[in-house]
Amino acid sequence: MKVLRVSKLTIALFVLPCLLLYICLVFVPILVSLYSGLLDWNGIGESTFVGLENFTNLFFNDKVFWPAVKRTLMFAVFSMAEIPIALFIAILLNRFIRRPNFLVSSYFLPVILSVVIIGQLWMTIYNPASMGGMLNQILEALNLKSWTRSWLTDPAIAMYSIYFVALWQYLGYHTLIQFTGIQNIPADLYEAAKIDGAEGLKADWHITFPMNIPIFKISIVLAFIGSLQAFDMIMVMTGGGPANATDVIATHMYNMSFKSMKYGYGSSIAAFLVGVCLVATIIINYLFNRLERKYS
Amino acid sequence: MTTMKRILKLALTGTLALSLAACGAANKPATTGGTEGEGAKETGSKPQNITITFQNIYPDPTDPKQGMLKKIVKQYEEMHPNVKIELDSLNTDQQKLKLKTQAASKEVPDITIVNPAAQMQPFVEAGLLAPLNDMVEKNGLKDTFQEGILDWYTFDGNLYALSDGNNIGLVYYNKELFEQGGVEVPTTFEEMIEVVKALKAKGIQPMAIGEKDTWTGSFLFMNMLLRTNGPGFLQQVVDGSKTFEDPAFIEAVDAFQNLVQAGAFQEGATSFDYNAGENLFKTGKAAMYYMGSWATGGIEASSVDGKVGVFKFPTINGKGNPDEFMLAPGSAFAISANSKHLEETKDFLNYFMLNFPKEAFEVRGAVGIAQKVDGDFKAAGYSDMAMEVLSMFKDVKGGDIAFDNTMNSGTAQVHLTSIQNLFVQKKDPAEVAKEHQDGYESNIKK
Amino acid sequence: MKSNLSTVSRSATVHTKPRFSIAKPLVYLLLGILFVTQLYPLIWLGIYSLKNNEEILSGSFFSLPAVPQWVNFQNAIEAGNYFRYLSNSVFVTTVTMACVLLLSSLVAFAISRFRWRYGQIVMLVFLVGMMIPMQATLLPLMIIFKNLSLLNTHASIILPYIAFQTPIAVFILSGFMKSIPNEIEESAIIDGAGIFRIFRSIIMPVSIPPMMTVCILTFINIWNEYILAATFISSERLKTLPFGVYSFVSQYSVNYGAIGAFLVLGALPVILIYFLLADKITKGMVAGAVKG
Lengths: 296, 446, 292
Fold this sequence. Notes:
The complex is a heterotrimer.
Chain A: H1 8-36, E1 39-40, E2 48-49, H2 53-61, H3 65-96, H4 101-112, H5 115-126, H6 134-141, H7 158-183, H8 187-195, H9 200-211, H10 213-228, H11 232-237, H12 249-259, H13 263-295
Antiparallel strand pairs in A: 1-2
Helix pairs in contact in A: 1-13, 3-7, 3-10, 4-7, 7-10, 10-13, 12-13
Chain B: H1 2-23, E1 50-56, H2 64-79, E2 83-89, H3 92-104, E3 111-114, H4 121-125, H5 133-137, H6 141-144, E4 154-155, E5 158-159, E6 161-163, E7 166-174, H7 175-181, H8 189-201, E8 205-208, H9 215-229, H10 233-239, H11 247-261, H12 274-282, E9 286-292, H13 296-300, E10 308-311, E11 325-329, E12 332-335, H14 342-362, H15 384-393, E13 399-401, H16 403-406, H17 409-424, H18 429-443
Parallel strand pairs in B: 1-2, 8-9, 11-13
Antiparallel strand pairs in B: 3-12, 4-5, 6-12, 7-9, 7-10, 7-11
Helix pairs in contact in B: 2-14, 7-8, 9-11, 9-17, 11-18, 17-18
Chain C: H1 23-48, H2 53-57, H3 71-79, H4 82-113, H5 119-129, H6 138-147, H7 155-178, H8 182-190, H9 195-206, H10 208-223, H11 227-232, H12 241-247, H13 256-291
Helix pairs in contact in C: 1-13, 3-13, 4-7, 4-10, 4-12, 5-7, 7-10, 9-13, 12-13
């Protein structure tokens, strides 16, 4: 039970500065976007109100949209699946390395590099062997020529190539977050568990994992946000191509709003995103509330 | 829009100001593009200090073009000490996005960059650009432009932008690689396919393209359509006399597929952007390169300089006239209709354009500019290839402009994607045609 | 979770000793491979920044430049306006981080510790915006800033940066603050501490670890942000580091080497500061916990 009873003025002082800024610059623009989603508008000239026409077109006539949604969700699933791995690495770091900070920091490096350079780097890895692509050259050297692929231009695998880069880039990021969590688990819990005969992985299962659930939740939410907003990386590496094979919700929205000059239509995609976001938040909250209750 | 804006303004101005103060992050500088200097309207004898914002797409300080831009700006500032030209130099994609965003709130910078014909039409229709009819007559500026080029920027008799380029599509080829492959310059498309196969057999990469930037493939495709149909196909579609399912269009798709299927383009072409694609040609790794004549300067400066020739895109199935080219009127300088310093801005742009050809000539960037250049190209050190390109301009007997300059953006995006798809999978040409027609129909105003 | 936080003090530094020694080499191998794959990009970038365009575009993964192109760095620093952009970036990022931390921890405190009716609603309002990409709000923001005459000022990017970072910050901080045991406040109230003192000298110090997370998050989202900055900033003297990177991208040519050099220069101060502080960050966490 919360104990602090405070005056309305105090609440206002604590909440309003941030809330107002947020409402003006994020919430209201989102509402405006929702409204723009009901317009036939190129973003520049006159607009006409068309009701839900953009949405019906989006849901029923847009060949790019649902595959893009699917890719975005896959992106989210992969990013979330990475978190237990990150936790595992964080545990190893914490347990086996005397001064883990240096390693944690270096794992984190790819995140602070600009996507421009990450994109360039991975293109030189994914390119065809004839263009100096490292991956294919290695496969050829290992006599596995049949395994070589056009990693970024084969519509069937291009998206997976991009997922992989994102996973690689954000592994250190999630490791760092999990590591911070682990650092804050009191050591005497492990001491106590040791007396009960639980050590190593067993102790992790009973202590590290449940104690880290709140941190887990943060990671999951961040992974989800990252997937919904995945944009730069795709633009740099494939531009959404070949033939929309790597388009996700964010790139589709951008293409529609600014390249096809259908701002109203693009806004209806933004509205859809808001919906996805709300549903996802509710689901994540629900699941974690259950988890936390189970373990507390 | 206006009502929405008014509501926003009312609702936000107050509340935001509050949180602004709370945050303490407001550090508004004294001079911004348009907000100050309203006093220019006063008719005092002393000229007011004004700032003109010049949004442009020459961001690279290591590119001679930016040097040229800065030089002219500096000259003008010296002659007019009360005028400051603020350059907002952005890369092309970002400038397009920024201008569209600015246009939505009628906040177009004093000078900006637009693209010809259909691409600038929405800006003109929204009344965002100032007509330049009077300004272009001053100091004989109009006569410096090549015949007909300004038509691409003219709507209802009003000129809205001044072009920086006038290019044509042609095929660059590497003479050395052609010799190694034992092939001659093709005079028909069928021969061209044979050349591709012969080069391929010798292990030489026949053509390079940067198809991650989808317009590159489209530009080539449109040249094929120009051959199978003759000029004006898209206009015929707009007028309703033809559809995309016309045999000429299907024939062009078929020819394009033949080229792709013959293995003309490098592996993974759709992940090469414009520069990476062009670089294959520039480093002698590909034998042919279809591109606008603006590529001339870059090729001259590369390691294949001296080995490169050019040829006109050949006839397809005996159809078409090689003297009809893909025409590429360049991006162009436009002035905001709401500019606070309209007269001064016009005066500056007039000066800028008058000096443009001379300065471009000096930095060897005068091949394919929109204005007439008097000067001896040969003596100024332009290469033989550049001379060849220049002489080709004299053969131009009309042609077509790029897809996105003719069609609305929605249809253009459908087209660009559809053509990109041909690089990764073989499709029935009729299906491609249908895709275009559907895309067109769903994007025209009802 | 709740009952344990008070004992946090003795945690972090104490490690349980690994038992299975066979696993050790394997672990070192795994962590070592990771180290190489995550660090290699930086080395690659360093080499990249010394190549010329043709070497870069020929795309070999391991090759070294024939002649190191130091001119790339000269271009990045002089032509690319490195120092001005860097100082703008530092300013924008620092102000943003400070404001995000302050504003969001105030709200998070209110949501998680105050007894009031609308806490959950406020939280929900924040959650709505948590996942929205900034591009989706470009146009409305443009209109707002135009009417406030804020276009082409640092405020026009700092304000949306703060606003977009607060939801996740509030989410993280309130999640953490909820887990702080009530007894702490109860005893503080008995001691006669006011609400601001509880916030400043109890809640803030304990919350340093999640605040570090928020800092890092904010940093990586802001430092390389380009779309918003490019749209709202026009004056040369206000531009930030990503402008420098993209300035070498022209319509028909790209100076890749200079981009590489610029990125090296952009990343260097960050990496230096980060590694210098890495130990301090952890110590800070522990020290903060002691006070709690």
